[in-house]
Automatic annotation (TrEMBL):
It comes from Brachybacterium endophyticum. This is Phospholipase. InterPro entries: PLipase_D/transphosphatidylase, PLipase_D_fam. The keyword Metal-binding does not apply. Keywords: Hydrolase, Lipid metabolism, Repeat. GO terms for cellular component: plasma membrane.
Length: 532
């Protein structure tokens, strides 16, 4: 196996100003890591609570978030996320956090919630910066946590993925939803079901994720340049800059066989990021390098699937490899499920799917999911598995905003330990399927098919898994179309049916899409192309 065939090298990252590619002698990834994927917020919050409660005075907690609701419970008892973090700060844990300042709540964002969580953590002795160093209508969308223990480095860990510390996220495999909800469209029900995941890593990659936090923390640029936000910051006595952090300790010792590459998006902006003065699009570049290598199966879970320009790397793989299947599990409806939201988002999705179907025909398989009460599940996970070799878990979605405009963080993973089951390789070059990427794909497949742990031997083969998905979705679709008579068939998969947008709405939708939903921050010479 040649890792360099899959991962970016430091030149391909195209950002010589980041610390990441100077930390390991010019190598743009780490080896010797271990990891586990936590599917669903309930499992993730329980694990996060377990590790934070182990932290002692002098340990270090760093985290970033897009939205934080201070009263979000982390378990079945009454403990909230802000109580968990504040308790750590009071017992002497050094707590540093970067929250997106957020747009006004009047346009359905999270200004008040983020500020409330920040204020409570500050009162307990932690330090939280409300960070608006983004492009207009942009956001800090990164979601990661780093836990360091100078005197007990064997406990060091980091999490990265799609789960925010907020309402609706604490769902589980049953998908009955989080009792603490946010406002969504009626189609999602009173307690929207939410499918999501985070990657827990241990080993040297923890240091790379921490380095990303420190780059943002050490940025001397004012946290906001907007006059109204600056006035609000003064009124609320927000911290204007971060206090110096203790020096970064050496990376944790190797713990396993995972190779991990930390990928980011930072847009070019003024004032410039010192660590990315021309921006960084390593997430986009990583997909553009790895996905076209796919030969048998690409498995994707994504919230949006919007842009044909982003979908182009998948289309290229489908055209060049006639045996390749692409499986996409996505959110069937938009979050708000309004006329404007559908006109902008669904037109862009239809264009992306048109490109994929033109390239792959019936080898492209697109599904939504629902729970056993027949309510659609909102898919917020961001995962891609290529030939059971290269896998990503992160905060980025399949759109231009994630690949060029917002800040994002994603981990690409290759497992040095093979899965061992037949087929041992899904590739002509014989490269063996990795234990973790295959395990993640099969875990997600079992959930969507309503199968217990271990009942997946027939799903290891890509074509067999595709048949199982198609047949399960067909049975459930037929049950719905037949008036839901008799027992509900096993499974949660529904074949995705596109929303057709009336022509009169498409023009307005295109404007909203380009300006607000999915802006492109690439240099003008690259816009309109599939190069990143």
């Amino acid at each position: 196996m040649s890792i360099d065939d899959w991962f970016l090298d430091s030149t391909e990252r195209d950002n010589p100003f980041t610390r990441l590619d100077h930390r390991h002698g010019g190598r743009a990834h780490t080896s010797g890591n271990s990891g586990k994927v936590h599917v669903h917020g309930a499992e993730y919050f329980a694990r996060l609570r377990e590790l934070i409660e182990q932290q002692q005075a002098g340990d270090l907690m760093m985290f970033t978030d897009w939205r934080g609701d201070p009263d979000e419970r982390v378990g079945e008892d009454s403990l909230t996320i802000v109580e968990l973090i504040a308790a750590a700060a009071r017992r002497g844990v050094i707590v540093k956090a970067l929250f997106w300042r957020s747009h006004l709540d009047t346009i359905h964002y999270s200004e008040a919630e983020n500020r409330s969580l920040a204020d409570t953590v500050r009162e307990a002795g932690g330090e939280v910066l409300l960070d608006q160093r983004v492009l207009p209508l942009g956001s800090h969308h990164q979601k990661f946590v780093v836990l360091r223990h100078p005197d007990r480095p064997h406990l060091d860990a980091a999490f990265a993925g799609g789960i925010d510390m907020c309402h609706t996220r604490r769902d589980d495999a049953r998908h009955h939803g989080d009792p603490q909800t946010v406002s969504m469209g009626e189609v999602w029900g009173k307690t929207p079901a939410w499918h999501d995941m985070m990657l827990e890593v241990r080993g040297p990659a923890v240091g790379d994720i921490e380095a990303t936090f420190r780059e943002r923390w050490d940025d001397p640029t004012p946290l906001t340049l907007d006059i109204f936000s600056r006035a609000g910051a003064v009124l609320h006595r927000d911290d204007g800059h971060g206090d110096p952090m203790p020096p970064q300790t050496p990376d944790p010792e190797p713990t396993g066989d995972l190779h991990v590459q930390v990928l980011r998006t930072f847009p070019p902006r003024q004032p410039r990021y010192p660590f990315a003065p021309s921006g960084e699009r390593s997430i986009a570049r990583a997909y553009s390098k790895a996905v076209p290598r796919a030969e048998s199966l690409v498995y994707v879970e994504d919230q949006y699937v919007w842009s044909p320009l982003v979908a182009s790397c998948y289309a290229r793989a489908l055209r060049e490899h006639p045996g390749l299947h692409l499986v996409i599990v996505l959110s069937t409806y938009t979050t708000a499920d309004t006329t404007i939201a559908n006109a902008s988002a669904m037109s862009a999705r239809n264009a992306a799917l048109d490109l994929l179907h033109e390239a792959g025909g019936d080898r492209v398989h697109v599904f939504g999911i629902e729970n056993h009460e027949n309510v659609p599940v909102y898919v917020h996970s961001k995962v891609c598995v290529v030939d059971d070799v290269w896998m990503t878990v992160g905060s980025d979605n399949m759109n231009l905003r994630s690949w060029t405009y917002d800040s994002e963080l994603t981990c690409a993973v290759i497992d040095g330990v093979g899965d061992g089951r037949a087929p041992r390789s899904l590739r002509e070059d014989g490269e063996e399927a990795g234990a973790l990427p295959r395990a993640v794909r099969l875990q997600l497949a079992r959930e969507h098919l309503d199968r217990p742990d271990g009942e997946d031997e027939d799903l290891v083969d890509p074509e067999a898994m595709v048949r199982a998905f198609e047949e399960s979705a067909a049975r459930l679709d037929a049950w719905h179309e037949g008036g839901r008579r008799g027992p509900r068939p096993a499974g949660r998969l529904r074949r995705y049916v596109r929303q057709q947008i009336p022509r009169k709405q498409q023009a307005l939708g295109r404007v909203v899409y380009k300006l607000a939903n999915d802006p492109d921050a690439r240099p003008r010479t690259l816009r309109g192309t599939d190069r990143f």
